[in-house]
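We append the chain.
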Amino acid sequence: MRELEGLRILVLEDEFLIAMDVEQVCRDHGAVDVVIKRSLSGLENRPVNDLDFDAAVLDMRLGSTSTLDFARSLLAGGIPFVFATGYGDPAETAESFPGVPVITKPYMGSDLVEALVRVVGTRSPRLTLSR
Protein backbone atom coordinates (compact mmCIF):
# COMPACT_ATOMS: atom_id res chain seq x y z
CA MET A 1 0.00 0.00 0.00
CA ARG A 2 1.29 3.49 -0.84
CA GLU A 3 -0.19 5.58 1.95
CA LEU A 4 2.13 8.55 1.33
CA GLU A 5 1.52 8.65 -2.43
CA GLY A 6 2.70 11.90 -4.00
CA LEU A 7 3.72 13.57 -0.74
CA ARG A 8 6.82 15.68 -0.24
CA ILE A 9 8.27 15.22 3.21
CA LEU A 10 10.86 17.16 5.19
CA VAL A 11 12.94 15.09 7.61
CA LEU A 12 14.81 16.96 10.34
CA GLU A 13 17.17 14.36 11.76
CA ASP A 14 20.84 14.64 12.68
CA GLU A 15 21.54 10.89 12.84
CA PHE A 16 22.52 9.92 9.29
CA LEU A 17 21.38 6.28 9.41
CA ILE A 18 18.04 7.15 10.98
CA ALA A 19 17.47 9.88 8.37
CA MET A 20 18.25 7.45 5.55
CA ASP A 21 15.88 4.88 7.04
CA VAL A 22 13.08 7.45 7.34
CA GLU A 23 13.67 8.50 3.73
CA GLN A 24 13.46 4.90 2.52
CA VAL A 25 10.31 4.17 4.53
CA CYS A 26 8.63 7.30 3.12
CA ARG A 27 9.66 6.47 -0.46
CA ASP A 28 8.56 2.83 -0.06
CA HIS A 29 5.14 4.15 0.89
CA GLY A 30 4.84 6.49 -2.09
CA ALA A 31 6.44 9.79 -1.08
CA VAL A 32 7.56 11.55 -4.24
CA ASP A 33 10.33 13.50 -2.54
CA VAL A 34 12.02 13.42 0.84
CA VAL A 35 14.33 16.24 1.89
CA ILE A 36 16.69 15.50 4.75
CA LYS A 37 18.06 18.35 6.82
CA ARG A 38 20.54 17.68 9.61
CA SER A 39 20.22 21.20 11.03
CA LEU A 40 17.78 24.11 11.00
CA SER A 41 20.18 26.12 8.85
CA GLY A 42 18.24 27.68 6.02
CA LEU A 43 14.88 26.84 7.56
CA GLU A 44 14.53 28.92 10.70
CA ASN A 45 14.39 32.35 9.05
CA ARG A 46 12.13 31.42 6.13
CA PRO A 47 8.37 31.94 6.30
CA VAL A 48 6.69 28.55 6.74
CA ASN A 49 4.56 29.13 3.65
CA ASP A 50 7.77 29.30 1.57
CA LEU A 51 8.67 25.76 2.61
CA ASP A 52 6.97 23.58 0.04
CA PHE A 53 6.44 20.24 1.67
CA ASP A 54 3.31 18.38 2.68
CA ALA A 55 4.47 17.10 6.04
CA ALA A 56 7.53 16.90 8.26
CA VAL A 57 9.21 14.41 10.55
CA LEU A 58 11.05 16.23 13.33
CA ASP A 59 13.60 15.06 15.82
CA MET A 60 13.20 17.30 18.89
CA ARG A 61 16.93 17.91 19.09
CA LEU A 62 19.47 18.26 16.34
CA GLY A 63 22.71 18.00 18.28
CA SER A 64 22.29 20.63 20.97
CA THR A 65 19.64 22.60 19.04
CA SER A 66 15.96 22.30 19.90
CA THR A 67 13.49 22.08 17.02
CA LEU A 68 10.51 23.11 19.17
CA ASP A 69 10.42 26.73 17.91
CA PHE A 70 10.45 25.45 14.33
CA ALA A 71 7.68 23.00 15.27
CA ARG A 72 5.64 25.91 16.67
CA SER A 73 6.02 27.75 13.36
CA LEU A 74 4.82 24.66 11.48
CA LEU A 75 1.86 24.37 13.80
CA ALA A 76 1.00 28.05 13.34
CA GLY A 77 1.36 27.69 9.57
CA GLY A 78 -0.89 24.63 9.40
CA ILE A 79 1.87 22.31 8.16
CA PRO A 80 1.36 18.79 9.53
CA PHE A 81 4.25 17.08 11.28
CA VAL A 82 5.18 14.32 13.66
CA PHE A 83 7.91 14.13 16.26
CA ALA A 84 10.18 11.10 15.90
CA THR A 85 12.53 11.44 18.82
CA GLY A 86 14.39 9.91 21.69
CA TYR A 87 14.04 13.12 23.73
CA GLY A 88 11.31 14.75 25.72
CA ASP A 89 8.32 13.75 27.71
CA PRO A 90 5.44 12.66 25.44
CA ALA A 91 2.87 14.01 27.94
CA GLU A 92 4.57 17.40 28.03
CA THR A 93 4.82 17.45 24.24
CA ALA A 94 1.13 16.59 23.93
CA GLU A 95 0.29 19.60 26.09
CA SER A 96 2.38 22.01 23.99
CA PHE A 97 1.57 20.37 20.65
CA PRO A 98 -1.97 18.96 20.87
CA GLY A 99 -2.75 16.43 18.17
CA VAL A 100 0.88 16.06 17.08
CA PRO A 101 1.99 12.43 17.31
CA VAL A 102 5.22 11.63 19.15
CA ILE A 103 6.94 8.47 17.99
CA THR A 104 9.64 7.39 20.42
CA LYS A 105 12.93 6.02 19.10
CA PRO A 106 13.46 3.28 18.31
CA TYR A 107 10.27 2.99 16.29
CA MET A 108 8.92 0.85 13.50
CA GLY A 109 8.54 2.26 10.00
CA SER A 110 4.86 1.33 10.11
CA ASP A 111 4.41 3.54 13.19
CA LEU A 112 5.94 6.47 11.32
CA VAL A 113 3.78 5.95 8.25
CA GLU A 114 0.64 5.61 10.37
CA ALA A 115 1.44 8.87 12.20
CA LEU A 116 2.13 10.73 8.94
CA VAL A 117 -1.12 9.47 7.40
CA ARG A 118 -2.98 10.60 10.51
CA VAL A 119 -1.61 14.16 10.44
CA VAL A 120 -1.81 14.62 6.68
CA GLY A 121 -5.34 13.20 6.37
CA THR A 122 -6.88 14.05 3.03
CA ARG A 123 -4.61 17.03 2.36
CA SER A 124 -3.58 17.35 -1.29
CA PRO A 125 0.12 17.12 -2.10
CA ARG A 126 1.87 20.39 -2.97
CA LEU A 127 3.26 20.83 -6.46
CA THR A 128 6.82 21.99 -5.82
CA LEU A 129 9.50 21.59 -3.20
CA SER A 130 12.00 24.31 -2.35
CA ARG A 131 15.37 23.12 -1.13
Remarks:
- The radius of gyration is 13 Å.
- Residues 12 and 41 are 11 Å apart (CA to CA).
- Helices lie at 16-28, 68-77, 90-96, 109-120.
